[in-house]
């Protein structure tokens, strides 16, 4: 901790990170032990975070992330989109297919950035805001593989006809980006994905991840 930083704010952010990493919430005692501070400090931190709806406590007294975090999260998408666009443009132009960045939104996959190639006669119309189940389509399958630690070489998912008849997709997960689950991929009108597309998608996902770190 330096003279330019706030110890209280630092502790509050650490509380949010600890709560975000658990599905069942944490008690005041558990937070006190993890933060290395006394319970009184934790009570004050939680009370302040509750005022801003960033934390809620259930009937059993366990603290969980509050709905206010979702409101903040909605503002993240434009920032993520902006960071990803250069890599998506390069991918779309190189492959000649619609490139997209997809993030997890609840139990669904949500396309937050889409770039279409400029030189092709036709391509798949894949729109920002498009949603689909995580277990359908290359974008969602790549995310689930990363979540289950199943990402191995070559590190990408391939699908055909799962979201749109006649369309094939390839996607690679974002790896090493704290707080973001997502994938970068392409969708094309083809019976199968050309061999060079998978590795190229992996490279693009790495570029986006680097931009978001």
UniProtKB/TrEMBL annotation:
PROSITE patterns listed in its UniProt record: HTH_ICLR, ICLR_ED
One Gene Ontology MF term: DNA-binding transcription factor activity
HTH iclR-type domain location: 6-67
Alphabetic keyword roster: DNA-binding, Transcription, Transcription regulation
Source superkingdom: Bacteria
Residue intervals of the IclR-ED domain: 68-213
GO biological process assignments: negative regulation of DNA-templated transcription
UniProt keyword annotation of DNA-binding present: yes
Family annotation (PANTHER family): HELIX-TURN-HELIX TRANSCRIPTIONAL REGULATOR, ICLR FAMILY, HTH-TYPE TRANSCRIPTIONAL REPRESSOR ALLR
Name recorded for this polypeptide: Helix-turn-helix domain-containing protein
Species assigned in the record: Streptomyces alfalfae
